Amino acid sequence: MNDHSGGIRLEINGPVANLIHFRQTGPEVVRGAWTRAGQRASASLAALPQTTVAVLSGSAYGGGLELALHCDFRIAASHVEIGLPETTLGTTAGYSVGETSSLLNNPSWRGRR
């Protein structure tokens, strides 16, 4: 972060699921709650007036990749692995990534703003 970053930094490391909560409530409740929270986070990120940059320095699977796709720019180290593992199970990504990924067909150095 620097003086021009607007003071916002989002960092996601390691597993984010609370497995105890998952076991107590069941997969359907948790899946719905995670999806709604991810959709809200993605919409909020996309609506920020500041230019957003996702810096990928590790793996970006599932929700981490989906959040990165909602940023204006994505910068990744050469060793970064990305993917949507949920698609191997026959499900779709949950944070409206289908709508967002269509924006990547016409990359621009200026971003969308």
Automatic annotation (TrEMBL):
<keyword id="KW-0276">Fatty acid metabolism</keyword>
<keyword id="KW-0443">Lipid metabolism</keyword>
<dbReference type="InterPro" id="IPR018376">
    <property type="entry name" value="Enoyl-CoA_hyd/isom_CS"/>
</dbReference>
<dbReference type="GO" id="GO:0004300">
    <property type="term" value="F:enoyl-CoA hydratase activity"/>
</dbReference>
<dbReference type="Pfam" id="PF00378">
    <property type="entry name" value="ECH_1"/>
</dbReference>
<feature type="region of interest" description="Disordered">
    <location>
        <begin position="89"/>
        <end position="113"/>
    </location>
</feature>
<protein>
    <submittedName>
        <fullName>Enoyl-CoA hydratase</fullName>
        <ecNumber>4.2.1.17</ecNumber>
    </submittedName>
</protein>
<comment type="function">
    <text>Could possibly oxidize fatty acids using specific components.</text>
</comment>
<dbReference type="InterPro" id="IPR029045">
    <property type="entry name" value="ClpP/crotonase-like_dom_sf"/>
</dbReference>
<comment type="similarity">
    <text>Belongs to the enoyl-CoA hydratase/isomerase family.</text>
</comment>
<dbReference type="GO" id="GO:0006635">
    <property type="term" value="P:fatty acid beta-oxidation"/>
</dbReference>
<dbReference type="InterPro" id="IPR001753">
    <property type="entry name" value="Enoyl-CoA_hydra/iso"/>
</dbReference>
<keyword id="KW-0456">Lyase</keyword>
